Amino acid sequence: MIENHTIISKFDENSRIVVTESDTLSTLKSLPNSKFKLAVSSPPYNLGKEYEKQIELQHYLDWQTEIIKELSRITSDNGSIVWQVGNFVDNGEVYPLDIHFYPIFKALGLQLRNRIVWHFDHGLHASKRFSGRYETLLWFTKSKEYTFNLDPVRVPSKYPGKLHYKGDKKGQPSGNPLGKNPSDYWSIIAKEWDNGIIDIPNVKSNHPEKTDHPCQFPIELIERCVLALTNEDDWVIDPFGGVGSSLIAAIKNERRGMMIDRDPQYISIAKDRVRAFQSGSLKMRPLGKPVHKPTGKEKVAQMPSEWLDRKQERLI
Ligand SMILES: C[S@@+](CC[C@H](N)C(=O)[O-])C[C@H]1O[C@@H](n2cnc3c(N)ncnc32)[C@H](O)[C@@H]1O
To answer: What is the whole-number distance in angstroms between the Cα of residue 291 and the centre of ligand 1?
Structure first.
């Protein structure tokens, strides 16, 4: 039973939902040491989106280094930081941000546990390079002793009926009744049943969670991190919280959640979404729901007749 806790604006360890409208770095500096089990975010990528001003890459990374230092300080010794990033693109040249972020985390003594590839099937069609269809989540822990709960995020096994064929357990089921490890490749197109990969669409206009935010997390993406890397009542923080997707992933699963964003419009949407969640009216894709697959019979799946001749020409 999820209780309807009050949303407060300043961190208090006895509260459960904190939404702070402020600059990230200054707020992080005000937070106590080692209180958060998970810091998870998608920082601005320095692309000049409506919520950021593009700056020189090294200046951007210096600023992010300050943020990550603070996050490391406020994360508990058995806690994690998950940094979800894509590419910075300058004059057509691509800089994969995870390559630039890795040494920042490493220099702070954090240890990489997974570099998760989040693959999605929609996006801009590039004309001078291959279209980008994945981003990554760098999962770091503060130490070797960290929370990792595999059972709540297992996915159905491909062959649940597989048996041990030799040894003491010969003839007994070899898998796990709760399913298998979801792997470090989380995709939208692949079939969970066939490939054992986690199936998460990105949030585009036909997604039930879409708000006015241009780069919103699907809640289920963060739910997987929350379920695997924290326990009930632990604190989860998203330092660039946008419209509150990580916050909802946390409170939906009985964790305590805090988010920071400096944009009053996003803060207002985030609070509305929390209230809608509490009243049961927030539209969300349920965790693990398979992605709709076209049957091939839809009008948009049909080859236009004027293209059929050209296809024939290529086959001859
Ligand atoms: C990539 S978006 C995160 C979106 C979020 N994952 C969601 O699901 O809504 C980055 C966010 O960082 C916020 N932001 C950028 N610079 C900031 C700063 N210095 N302090 C606080 N928030 C900032 C922007 O307003 C934006 O909402």
So the answer is: 27
CA distance 182 to 199: 10
In the chain, the number of structural domains is 1
What is the pLDDT averaged over residues 108-115? 98
Report yes or no on 202 lying in a domain: yes
Q: Whose CA is nearest to atom 22 of ligand 1?
A: 261
Pocket test for ligand 1, best of 262, 265, 267 (most atoms within 8 A of CB): 262
- How many residues belong to the chain? 316
| SS3 at position 137 | strand
| CATH number of the domain that residue 272 is part of | 3.40.50.150
pLDDT > 70? residue 164:
yes
Containing structural domain, residue 174 = 7-315
| pLDDT tens track for 199-228 | 566 666 566 777 777 778 889 899 999 999
Domain presence at residue 1? no
Q: Which residue has the CA at smallest separation from atom 4 of ligand 1?
A: 242
Please tell me whether the overall predicted TM-score, pTM, comes out greater than 0.85 for this model: yes
- Between the alpha carbon of residue 87 and those of residues 25, 134, 251, the distances in Å are 22, 10, 30
Q: Decide if 97 is inside a domain.
A: yes
